[in-house]
Design a protein that fits this description.
The protein is mainly β and 119 residues long. It has two helices and nine strands.
C-alpha cells in the first residue's frame, strides 16, 4: 500500500490591489468583459505579453477568478511561461504602467519589449 499526497496547484497568476483597481476601472464600461493574457513572439529576446479585454475566453484558456468582478483568461500556450506571474500597476510620474513580475524570466531586452524563459 502507498500513500499519495494531494498538493493543490498554486494560482496561475496573481494581481496586486492596484492592478485589480486599474483593470476593474478599464472594464467598467464593458459589461461581461474579461481580461485575456497571452504571449507572442517579439523583440530581440523572444516573448512579449499581450493583454486584452475580450467578451469571452477561448475554449482552451485557463481561467483565473481574481475576485467577484474580475476574471483573467490565460492562453493555453502561455501557461508555462506565465505560471506564478504577479501583475502590478505602477504609477511612474504621470504615467501608469502594467508590470509583470514573472519568476520564469531569465533574460529581458534592454528596452523592455521582450523577454525569454528557461526552456
Amino acid at each position: 500500500m502507498s500513500v499519495e499526497s494531494f498538493v493543490p496547484n498554486q494560482q496561475l497568476i496573481s494581481m496586486t490591489p492596484t492592478a485589480i483597481k486599474h483593470f476593474e476601472g478599464k472594464l467598467a464600461d464593458q459589461p461581461g468583459a474579461i481580461l485575456r493574457l497571452s504571449t507572442k513572439m517579439s523583440g530581440c529576446t523572444g516573448y512579449a505579453y499581450v493583454l486584452n479585454a475580450v467578451p469571452e475566453a477561448e475554449a482552451d484558456d485557463e481561467l483565473v477568478q481574481v475576485n467577484n468582478t474580475l476574471t483573467v483568461a490565460i492562453a493555453k500556450d502561455a501557461v508555462d511561461v506565465l505560471r506564478n506571474t504577479e501583475i502590478d500597476y505602477v504609477k511612474e510620474g504621470i504615467n501608469g504602467v502594467v508590470k509583470f513580475n514573472n519568476p520564469n524570466v531569465v533574460n529581458e531586452c534592454g528596452c523592455g519589449e521582450s523577454f525569454s524563459v528557461q526552456e
